[in-house]
Known about the structure:
The structure holds two protein chains of two kinds. Chain A has two domains: 2-120, Rossmann fold (3-Layer(aba) Sandwich); 127-221, Winged helix-like DNA-binding domain superfamily/Winged helix DNA-binding domain (Arc Repressor Mutant, subunit A, Orthogonal Bundle). Chain A is built from eight helices and eleven strands. Chain A has helices spanning 10-22, 33-42, 59-69, 84-92, 105-120, 153-164, 172-180, 190-202, and strands spanning 2-6, 26-30, 47-51, 75-79, 97-100, 127-130, 133-136, 141-144, 147-149, 211-214, 218-221. Chain A has a five-stranded parallel beta sheet with strand order 2-1-3-4-5, with helices on both faces. In chain A, 35% of the residues are buried. Chain B is an alpha+beta fold. Chain B is built from seven helices and twelve strands. Chain B has helices at 8-75, 155-205, 220-268, 275-306, 317-334, 353-369, 426-436; strands at residues 82-87, 93-96, 122-127, 134-143, 146-153, 313-316, 338-343, 348-351, 376-384, 387-394, 440-445, 451-458. In chain B, helix 6 (353-369) packs antiparallel against helix 7 (426-436). Chain A binds chain B through residues 82-85, 102, 152, 154, 180, 182-184, 186-190, 193-194, 196-197, and chain B through 289, 293-294, 297, 300, 304, 310, 323, 326-328, 330-331, 333-334, 352, 354-355, 357-358, 361, 365, 368-369, 422.
Amino acid sequence: MKILLIEDDQTIARFVSTGLTQAGYRVDVAADGISGLDLAMNESYDLGIFDLMLPDMDGMSVIERVRRRNRRLPIIILSARRTVDDRVKGLQRGGDDYLTKPFSFSELLARVQAQLRRSSEADSGSTLVVHDLCVDLLARTVNRAGRRVDLQPKEFMLLEYLMRNAGHVVSKTMIIERVWNYNFDPRTNVVEARISKLREKVDKEFAYPLIHTVRGMGYVLKKE
Amino acid sequence: MSRLPRTLSFRLTAWYVCIFSLTLLAVFVVLYVSVGTILDHQSNNDLVEDIEEFRLFHARGGLDAVKAEIEHEISSDDPAKMFFRILDETGAELHTTDQSAFEGIDDFPVRLDELAADGEPLITVGRLVDGEHGLKVAIGALAPGAIMQLGESTEEHDELMTVVMAAFLAAYVVILPVASLIGWMIARKAARGIRTVSETAGRIHRGALDERVSTDFRELEIQQLAGTFNAMLDRIADLITEIRQMTDNIAHDLRSPLARIRAVWENALQDDASPEAAREAASATLIECDRLLDMINATLDLAELEAGMGEGDSVDVSEMARDACELFEPVAEEKRIELTGAVEPGCMVEGNRHYLQRMLANLLDNALKYTATGGRVGLGVTRNGANVLVEVWDTGIGIVPEHQEKVFERFFRCDPSRQQESCGMGLSFARAVARAHGGDVTLRSENGNGSRFTVALPLFA
């Protein structure tokens, strides 16, 4: 898996590329828009992480030009601009995800993984299965070990999101964004509370737990 | 042109003088032309009457009676002003008076052929070759074969017109400076209020920030200008005070986390410190960084909101409230708080979905935080006339009266030791959102007896 990082701040570029390399990705770093655009046009990448404020050109126009050439490349925008407007514009004009600086590396990594999975998963059908847990997306029913589990709509969406990212950590912010469509962190334990309710229904009476907390990072659905 | 003074008084005066003198000129032209025309008609009539008279003399006494009358007329008048002659039907001269003052009269057209059959006299006006004045000539038949030519200098007419012109010029020279002076005084008076306001503005600009313009003007427009100007100054002063206070608060709030970071690392860098101490310091620093970031973000959010919201969409507050209840349900459950929602469906508001979501989340979060285990929290959405009312109530600790307005201020905390939970921006953000949407938040609370926050937003129909 090859990632293109366009970022002019050397400290952040080194921080991100070291982390991604350790996580097993190959990373090319461009320090300005023109060389970044050059790489994006001539090399093949699985994902782009683009800063918006670049010394030579606006990051938005880099994204737009890359998009014209390659519609499927997942792009994560990294930006110090954090207003609702900036975010909406970034996503409308070609970004797939938007992360504001400063950010934690684990948050970025979780988002990178989610984007890479999304792009590789081509219409995975109407059921999601992880071990003995089975989610039917059309009938909107959940079964574990052959027993039916009743979930509220939001709980169902939360479980679906965890299932789609099975084996990978998703952060609290990602959950808030995808399941509740909030683009801010309410700073309370809403996600923890919701996860513990979900555990009661999905994990409690079964042989082994599937939903795990990863301290400081988020949650993951997997068999230990 | 560019060197003319550009002051309002000068311009008003210039316009006034221009319009005044043009009007005066127009009046004079009309007057002058009318007087000239009237005099002209008068002299024409006189000439025609003269010829009629001579015709009577001719009828009574023939050519001799006419000659006698001519002599009589000439003797009683200046010979340079009038002349008479009598011609036969071929134009040959039968009799004439002294023509010395009328040299060149022979070139004057004698158009016998144009004489009408009814004997109506013909009048032509012209000028002698070297004549100082014009000449008016009338010819008319006295009888067959006797045609009278009667000439009259226009000297008197010209003199009269010169007098009229001179009178006007004199009036012009006297009236114009007086008019200019009056115009200048009126303009100065009109611009006085503006000058006063601008002088005050100048003093404020140079540092006298507390000064205000006097609103004691008789002119309503100037009074309004002064009023608006003062209101603007008050608003600016409020903003400056607010910014100063906020800067103080931010500085204070930033200082504490920074002090903690510094202390932690100073410890970790001591010679006998263990590697674990460094790890602990790093993780403590991360937490403090997040806190700093929260604070800065909250401040920026507020600033963004107060700068105006941009375009809004129609937002279903009812649906949003149900979602928020659903989101906070498990949190309430953990604390064994009963969270109830009473939501009237379809309450629409025009605005920004994300801000409104945060406003609701902040209010609910606040209510849940300050309500003890076993209490109750409620969220209500109702339509009330042209408003949507969003109410969040709790059975929590309540807020003492002296803090009820302060809870909306940035960085305010009822209890200074409660630093861990939030940065004290939740309620001020909620109020800023409500106000940015054209509404407001009010609070009713009794100490120890719960609180009720009511957000009123304009209904979007």
